[in-house]
């Protein structure tokens, strides 16, 4: 008996496609693709929690940003910057031209931690890095170099990140100031481990310009530069080539308003002079890099954000348990404490408090002596074989 309708079977029932059980779920593949392509940290994290496969979100995207704030001395300016940082979901925010004299770190009223570097004498220049309160305990250390350069080390997965925050001299500065700045910056980078991820970001006061025809340095600069290149831009590119850095905010096709980082008074000119660079080895970790013109802190510079696929590594607190003595060690401990008790003078034995203090000191000495004699435990061959099996 033939069906009246082509493509159906029986009593108008549609044909069914039977797949083997090991055939992958297409919805899961689509979810993996969305997680891999999303540059929104909140969206990617939500996708990672919704899907059944937890191994997809081994490295979530986080936002590392730079902003020339043109001073933090105004009342309420820091609160505005932190509010914009929270609104744009930035985990690490580097600041240039903070005008802060001191070098050090402190916790803000919002719970974030700011690490700053100044010259200690004048309220000029200055750089800083703000770490979001969720990642305060991920900072391994920082080093203020001068009022234009500082470094900070962040504990992340799969590797530790070194961020160098800079503020280059302006176009009106002398050539010797430019040379001195790059010399100190070179020495700073050479002192960092090359096996770790390196991010160098800041206000470079240099224009790379249109880079569509720079195919010979495509691993350094992308196709989406903005403006006309100047001498400072040539110097900046030489620095990136020598240190194998990639300028991230020229590598992604965005609208021109997402490319410029500075505008002149009256909005007559728009230039791209703030850059976030990353070690070429980790270029594939950058999902997107662009500016956010909507962020406002009364500055003529725009917020530059790079979305990087990393995972912050929080330190684990390990509490030391009590020292368990072996049978031989127990005998040694007993002999030492008994000897100390018997050698106590007769007149001191009447004072119980004094006697207890002496005994406690001898007990601690005995435990320290036993701990020094212990050798680190080595895994037995049988235990290693079981782990391999």
From TrEMBL:
Enumerate the SUPFAM superfamilies for this protein.
DNase I-like (SSF56219)
List the InterPro entries hit by this protein, alphabetically.
Answer: Endo/exonu/phosph_ase_sf, Endo/exonuclease/phosphatase, Swc5/CFDP1/2
| Annotated ranges, domain Endonuclease/exonuclease/phosphatase | 66-301
Pfam families the record matches: Exo_endo_phos (PF03372)
PANTHER family xrefs: BUCENTAUR RELATED (PTHR23227), CRANIOFACIAL DEVELOPMENT PROTEIN 2 (PTHR23227:SF85)
What is the name listed in the Swiss-Prot or TrEMBL entry for this protein? Endonuclease/exonuclease/phosphatase domain-containing protein
Instruction: Identify the taxonomic lineage of the organism of origin.
Output: Eukaryota, Metazoa, Ecdysozoa, Arthropoda, Hexapoda
């Amino acid at each position: 008996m033939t069906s009246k309708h082509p493509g159906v079977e029986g009593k108008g029932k549609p044909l069914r496609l039977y797949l083997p059980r090991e055939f992958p779920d297409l919805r899961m593949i689509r979810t993996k693709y969305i997680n891999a392509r999303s540059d929104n940290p909140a969206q990617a994290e939500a996708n990672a929690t919704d899907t059944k496969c937890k191994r997809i979100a081994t490295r979530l995207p986080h936002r590392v940003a730079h902003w020339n704030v043109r001073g933090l001395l105004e009342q309420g300016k820091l609160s505005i910057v932190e509010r914009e940082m929270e609104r744009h979901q930035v985990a690490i925010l580097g600041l240039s031209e903070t005008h802060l004299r001191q070098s050090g770190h402190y916790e803000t009223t919002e719970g974030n931690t700011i690490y700053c570097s100044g010259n200690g004498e004048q309220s000029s220049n200055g750089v800083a890095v703000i770490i979001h309160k969720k990642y305060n305990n991920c900072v391994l250390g920082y080093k203020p170099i001068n009022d234009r350069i500082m470094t900070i080390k962040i504990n992340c997965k799969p590797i530790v990140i070194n961020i160098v925050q800079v503020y280059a001299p302006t176009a009106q500065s002398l050539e010797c100031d430019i040379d001195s700045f790059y010399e100190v910056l070179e020495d700073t980078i050479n002192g960092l481990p090359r096996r770790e991820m390196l991010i160098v970001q800041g206000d470079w006061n240099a224009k790379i310009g249109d880079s569509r025809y720079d195919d010979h340095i495509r691993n350094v600069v992308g196709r989406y530069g903005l403006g006309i290149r100047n001498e400072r831009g040539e110097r900046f590119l030489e620095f990136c080539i020598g240190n194998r850095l990639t300028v991230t905010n020229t590598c992604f096709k965005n609208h021109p308003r997402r490319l410029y980082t500075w505008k002149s008074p009256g909005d007559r000119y728009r230039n791209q002079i703030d850059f976030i660079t990353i070690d070429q080895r980790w270029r594939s970790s950058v999902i997107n890099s662009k500016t956010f013109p909507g962020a406002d802190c009364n500055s003529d510079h725009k917020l530059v954000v790079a979305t990087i696929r990393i995972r912050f590594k929080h330190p684990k607190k390990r509490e030391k348990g009590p020292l368990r003595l072996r049978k031989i060690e127990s005998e040694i401990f007993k002999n030492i404490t008994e000897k100390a008790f018997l050698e106590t003078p007769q007149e001191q034995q009447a004072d119980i408090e004094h006697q207890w203090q002496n005994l406690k000191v001898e007990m601690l000495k005995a435990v320290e002596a036993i701990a020094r004699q212990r050798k680190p435990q080595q895994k037995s061959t049988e235990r290693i074989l079981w782990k391999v099996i």
